[in-house]
């Protein structure tokens, strides 16, 4: 065409991918057509959307179609669309690098499997590059809507690609596949029709072969619920979500009344990589009377449901609705409320199958929990949907309803412990007394937990209480619990009281108080927060985020039944005014206090002094 052909190399990952694609399983090759049709359909949607803002772009009409042409003599299959098209920069950035989700996921799976071939390439849909499964040369001629010049991209899928100026009257893209010798079956009309019906029937614009339209060309959400098969849902979900897994839940309904809309929503099976991306976009597209208007308008869904994928199609919004108009739009607000209620009901229904629900919870629970405090209307419902690890079920998932049903006689609160590391949390000394009495404690270790728990008063009338805060009140709970091997508080109290008094003196301003503990069984000491202070873990988190400039003083609890404390009590009794021994016991108090800080994950105020004391104690033979 022109002498100004520019030669480009593929990005290294693309070359790797192409090598795999070229040798991929024979039986999976047919998915190339699904991928190219999916791109053509996306290109038409994009133009339809942009044309609502700039009419000039729609020059030549908006009767969108995807055309297939099979030329048996030339051995070529052509896929043409009248969508948005590409300019030179688009060609280079989109058809020479890996930026797309599906492809990236495939490469990741490949790296993880550490094999050259992960087998099911068709499952991933490697996008445009799948053309090289069936073709040994691919030509793309394209003109971007609104642009004067056209471009031709060409590659053999091995040695890079060329880009040259080209001639093309119409906007849109034409992809010519020079089929490999063993892929000539894709010139056969029946074969093409079968593939389109199987994989691309959900595409809303007509896919034509000559005069015939091969697909139904009606968007699936406009059809009756009973008219869409599970297989069609799967294909549509993969197309719309650019995903390669299967929907875990499918919700398809039509709302009529004050406002009218259709919704077709999916919950993915696997966690999406952008779940905690800073913009946290959701994945539900907004259509207005079958026309695509916005990729993921803010306000269509609450943020905590951002794992949803699919389509909402409104009858009430104007077609040319702008981004600004969508903000605080009353129609959108009503849709959001309707969609939220519907999705929560579906989750409640699916939660009855605990094993299946666990899959969902492990993927998206962390996001859903944000709804407990973000959604003023539905927070309690979301709390009911939440699942937790607990001391009784450290590897399972416990609902608050289960927890409450198992509460011990005399137990008034829902006890929890919060921390960063689930393994460390489960080993905290604060749990010992609770475990011993069989009182279940929720183990919270997601960052979001501190937020909802700080803002949630109660569940089913039961308050939440951190085991690191206030008195443990364990006496009231399960009072019949094995008292035999417990040190009798009346007997130890006066001796322990003397030691406590000595500890208070030795630690001075470092602690708020020293007292005997109910929550310890195996450990000698622990630190707790006073009832009026905030939870230890929350305080540490706020300090890390510089939202808190101080730290509250802690209460040191000691376990009178612990051998170490017992021997300290005995030493104190024997000391009887021996000031040297009293000084050594003061040192012991400081050692134990620092030890409690270490267990808590806090920094020591004076690590050097701690080291010195510990060495001294070792030298003394533990007093
Ligand atoms: P994905 O569809 O997941 O984005 P693909 O590899 O299938 O990944 O396509 C890469 C990109 O190439 C698309 O995102 C799009 O920008 C561009 N593209 C591919 N085919 C077309 C087409 N027919 N018209 C316009 N752009 C296209
Ligand atoms: Mg694609």
Summarize the structure.
The chain has 623 residues and is α+β, with helices and mostly antiparallel strands. The protein is 37% helix and 19% strand. The chain is built from 21 helices and 23 strands.
What does this structure look like?
With 623 residues, the protein is an alpha+beta fold. Helices cover 37% and strands 19% of the residues. The strands form four sheets. It has a nine-stranded mixed β-sheet, covered by helices on one side. Strands 16-15-18-17-20-19 form a six-stranded mixed β-sheet, with helices on both faces. Strands 10-11-14-12-13 form a five-stranded mixed β-sheet, sandwiched between helices. Strand 4 and strand 5 (150-155) form a beta hairpin. It binds adenosine-5'-diphosphate and magnesium ion.
Topology summary:
Layout: E1 6-8, H1 12-22, H2 31-51, E2 66-71, E3 76-81, H3 88-94, H4 101-113, H5 121-124, E4 135-143, E5 150-155, E6 161-166, E7 172-179, H6 189-199, E8 207-209, E9 212-213, H7 230-241, E10 247-255, E11 261-268, E12 283-288, E13 291-294, E14 309-314, H8 323-326, H9 330-350, H10 354-368, H11 370-374, H12 379-385, E15 387-390, E16 398-399, H13 400-405, E17 414-418, H14 422-426, H15 432-436, E18 442-444, H16 449-455, E19 458-459, E20 462-466, H17 489-507, E21 511-516, E22 525-528, H18 536-544, E23 554-558, H19 563-575, H20 579-600, H21 607-619
Parallel strand pairs: 2-8, 12-14, 17-18, 17-20, 21-23
Antiparallel strand pairs: 1-6, 2-3, 3-7, 4-5, 4-7, 5-6, 8-9, 10-11, 11-14, 12-13, 15-16, 15-18, 19-20, 22-23
Helix pairs in contact: 17-19, 17-20, 19-20, 20-21
């Amino acid at each position: 065409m022109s002498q100004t052909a520019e030669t480009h190399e593929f990005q290294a990952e693309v070359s790797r991918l192409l090598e795999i694609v070229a040798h991929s399983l024979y039986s999976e090759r047919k998915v190339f057509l699904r991928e190219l049709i999916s791109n053509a359909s996306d290109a038409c949607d994009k133009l339809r959307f942009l044309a609502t803002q700039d009419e000039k772009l729609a020059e030549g009409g908006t009767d969108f179609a995807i055309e297939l042409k099979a030329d048996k003599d030339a051995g070529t299959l052509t896929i043409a669309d009248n969508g948005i098209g590409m300019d030179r920069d688009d060609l280079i950035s989109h058809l020479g690098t890996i930026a797309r989700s599906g492809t990236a996921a495939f490469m990741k799976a490949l790296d993880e499997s550490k094999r050259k071939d992960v087998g099911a390439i068709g499952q991933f849909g490697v996008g445009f590059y799948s053309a090289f499964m069936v073709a040994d040369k691919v030509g793309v001629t394209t003109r971007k809507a609104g642009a004067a010049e056209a471009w031709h991209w060409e590659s053999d899928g091995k040695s890079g690609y060329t880009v040259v100026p080209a001639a093309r009257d119409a906007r849109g893209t034409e992809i010519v596949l020079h089929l490999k010798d063993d892929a000539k079956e894709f010139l056969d009309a029946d074969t093409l029709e079968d593939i389109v019906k199987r994989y691309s029937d959900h595409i809303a614009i007509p896919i034509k072969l000559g005069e015939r339209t091969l697909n139904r060309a009606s968007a699936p959400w406009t059809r009756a619920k009973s008219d869409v098969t599970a297989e069609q849902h799967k294909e549509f979900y993969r197309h719309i979500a650019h995903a390669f897994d299967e929907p875990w839940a499918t919700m398809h309904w039509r709302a009529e009344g004050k406002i009218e809309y259709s919704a077709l929503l999916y919950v993915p099976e696997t966690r999406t990589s952008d779940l905690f991306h800073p913009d946290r976009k959701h994945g539900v597209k907004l259509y207005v009377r079958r026309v695509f208007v916005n990729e993921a308008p803010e306000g269509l869904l609450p943020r905590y449901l951002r794992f949803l994928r699919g389509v909402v199609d409104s009858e009430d919004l104007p077609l040319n609705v702008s981004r600004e108009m969508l903000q605080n739009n009353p129609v959108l607000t009503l849709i959001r409320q309707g969609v939220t209620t519907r999705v929560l009901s579906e989750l409640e229904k699916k939660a009855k199958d605990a094993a299946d629900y666990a899959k969902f919870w492990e993927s998206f629970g962390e996001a859903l929990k944000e709804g407990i405090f973000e959604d003023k209307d539905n927070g309690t419902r979301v709390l009911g949907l939440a699942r937790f690890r607990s001391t009784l079920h450290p590897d399972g998932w416990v609902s608050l309803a289960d927890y409450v049903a198992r509460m011990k006689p005399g137990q008034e609160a829902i006890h929890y412990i919060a921390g960063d590391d689930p393994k460390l949390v489960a080993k905290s000394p604060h749990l010992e007394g609770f475990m011993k009495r069989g009182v279940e404690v929720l183990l919270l270790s997601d960052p979001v937990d501190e937020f909802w728990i700080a803002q949630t008063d109660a569940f089913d009338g039961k308050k939440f209480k951190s085991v690191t805060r206030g008195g443990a009140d364990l006496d009231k709970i399960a009072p019949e619990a094995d008292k035999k091997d417990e040190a009798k508080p009346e007997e130890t109290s006066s001796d322990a009281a003397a030691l406590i008094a000595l500890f208070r003196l030795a630690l001075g301003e470092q602690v708020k108080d020293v007292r005997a503990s109910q929550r310890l069984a195996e450990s000698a000491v622990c630190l707790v927060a006073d009832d009026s202070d905030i939870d230890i873990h929350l305080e540490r988190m706020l300090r890390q985020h510089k939202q808190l400039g101080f730290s509250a003083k802690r209460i040191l609890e000691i376990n009178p039944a612990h051998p170490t404390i017992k021997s300290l009590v005995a030493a104190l009794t024997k000391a009887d005014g021996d000031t040297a021994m009293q000084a050594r016991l003061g040192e012991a108090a400081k050692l134990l206090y620092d030890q409690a800080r270490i267990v808590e994950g806090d920094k020591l105020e004076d690590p050097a002094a701690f080291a010195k004391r510990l060495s001294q104690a070792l030298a003394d033979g533990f007093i």
